[in-house]
Design brief:
15 strands, EC 3.6.1.-, NUDIX_hydrolase-like_dom_sf
């Protein structure tokens, strides 16, 4: 077998060799005879996904979240997301027959009824809100006492993205916003989210916490010390940095 990159997944962990994705022929990376799915290309070589089993116990695995700053982060997210999809879709939702990989595309097919299932992608929004020289940062329940970050949430069925941004900010903070504009996106495979990032300006209202989601939310001045922020490589940090740059263009009162 020709040389390739091999992404070996175990839940939300990825196997690395000296901090890098294993590369070589199947026998060189101890994967001879293993089933794999080709999921892309890197540096001109194919990338194969392999789901870990007992034979991989001695490999060094790293949590996907800790690899967010790597150049190959999106490819790693693709591997983990597809692995989660394959594990959670073993039987047809229409007739309960076993599913099999389709031949011509990355999908699962039912030979009994012809039903075809494609990888799950769950869109979500993440938004940084600015008020003059201040940025809104929140401490979420999952980061209690730690990281302060932007607001985020999942898109509901039949809901336009722009409405999701408005709704999530209102539900979590009690604030109304305006001038919503798209910033960028980032896959977040825990297990299959795609985060769509936005910038927005404060319109009206006072902060009123949705306590089931947030421990705290405050306005922070761009020239004052900030709390602990999300790690490098996250779209949350990119949104915060972009907003702080905009804040500094506002003339002090």
């Amino acid at each position: 077998m020709k040389q390739a990159y091999w992404i070996i997944t175990k839940d939300f962990d990825v196997a690395l060799v000296n901090g890098e994705i294993p590369f070589g022929c199947a026998d060189e990376v101890q994967l001879s005879g293993r089933n794999f799915l080709t999921i892309g290309e890197l540096n001109g070589f194919p990338v194969h996904l392999v789901q870990a089993d007992a034979r991989d116990e001695m490999r060094n695995f790293a949590f996907l979240r800790t690899l967010i700053a790597k150049p190959e982060a999106n490819l790693l997210h693709r591997a983990v997301s597809l692995s989660q999809f394959l594990q959670s879709h073993r039987f047809c939702g229409r007739c309960a027959a076993p599913l099999h990989l389709a031949e011509s595309e990355i999908a699962l097919a039912c030979e009994a009824c012809g039903h075809r299932i494609y990888p799950t992608i769950s869109p979500s929004i993440i938004v940084a809100v600015r008020k003059g020289r201040q940025i809104l940062l929140a401490n979420h329940q999952r980061h209690k006492g730690g990281i302060y970050t932007t607001l985020a949430g999942f898109v509901e069925a039949g809901e336009p993205i722009e409405q999701t941004v408005q709704r999530e900010v209102w539900e979590e903070s009690g604030l109304k916003i305006r001038n919503v504009r798209y910033f960028g996106s980032q896959p977040w495979s825990f297990p299959h989210s795609l985060m769509l990032g936005f910038l927005a300006d404060y319109d009206s209202g006072e902060i009123k916490l949705q306590e089931s989601e947030l421990c705290d939310a405050r306005w922070f001045d761009c020239d004052e010390p900030l709390p602990e922020l999300p790690p490098k490589g996250t779209i949350a940090l990119a949104l915060i940095e972009a907003t702080l740059a905009l804040c500094r263009t506002e003339s002090p009162l």
